[in-house]
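Sanity check. The docking grid for copper (II) ion depends on where the pocket ends up, so I'm generating a full predicted complex first rather than guessing from homology. Inputs follow.
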Amino acid sequence: MHLAFPLAASTAALLALAGCGDPQPLYVDGGYVRLNANPSGPSAAYFTIHGGDKPVVLRDITTDAAVRLEMHESKTQNGMASMEEIDTVDVPAGEKITFAPGGKHIMLWQINPQAVAAGKMTFTFIFSNGDRILADAVIENPDGSASAAGNTTAANAAADEHAGH
Ligand SMILES: [Cu+2]
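Predicted complex below; grid placement will be based on this.
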């Protein structure tokens, strides 16, 4: 019975494949904060939301490390750039929603100086399915360098993260 071993092996492979068919998780990554060059002005934060196996709605984002936070979307209409506050964001199943310069972003007022010194802060994303997802963001200076003094590892990690998306 030469076939006995190959059959057993392919059964194992099929089981492994079935494992990959588990529900696709909803998650958030690629977070970074770009500090405003004007210290009294608002800073912006960007993320990527990866939709799970069912559509959800992003209902809110919170953080302990800033006094005020709003979700905004930048638009260009008739050559004029403007931004407006948005209350919710639809996250279709399996789709990637990117918060990026020129589009959706988080606006932050009065970021905790200790968070800036540490070079990172944590956000909580609250979804319509009840998920509360924590996501870290690297805090960058207006020029894109890491806000934490001498923290080149964080800067490199952030750069890699951007390259990957
Ligand atoms: Cu804004």
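Relevant for the grid: The first helix runs from residue 4 to 20.
Also worth noting: Residues 154-165 have pLDDT under 50 and may be disordered.
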